[in-house]
Amino acid sequence: MSTFTIFLVLIVVVAFLLIVVIMVQNPKGGGLSSSFGGGGTQQLGGVKKTTDFLDKSTWTLATLLLVLILVSNIAIDRGSAGVESKAYDADAPSTQPLPAVPTTTDTTTATPEDSVAE
Length: 118
Known about the structure:
Its main location: membrane. Involved in protein export. Participates in an early event of protein translocation. Belongs to the SecG family. By secondary structure, this protein is an all-alpha fold. It has five helices and no strands. The protein has helices spanning 3-24, 31-35, 40-45, 49-75, 112-115. The termini are far apart.
């Protein structure tokens, strides 16, 4: 298992946890926490520490997700070659010739009067 794969799995797990933490929070309208018993879960703790914990965990998970995404960029295996782009070829000539434009050898010109038969 490569390092990038490990980072990818961690990113997916943290993103899933972040979604769950955001969905559990109690917004003005109630949120999912009200569906599972509402304020009873917060009263069970006795204080409003649940909202503080959810707020801190949201910021922590969001920061962790951002850091994992940035660090995973370092773990990408780019190979030993310098430039692997197929659009850029160092051996190719710098300019390419333009395609030939077909020329017409017809010297007769049609006028509007010629096309109208009276």
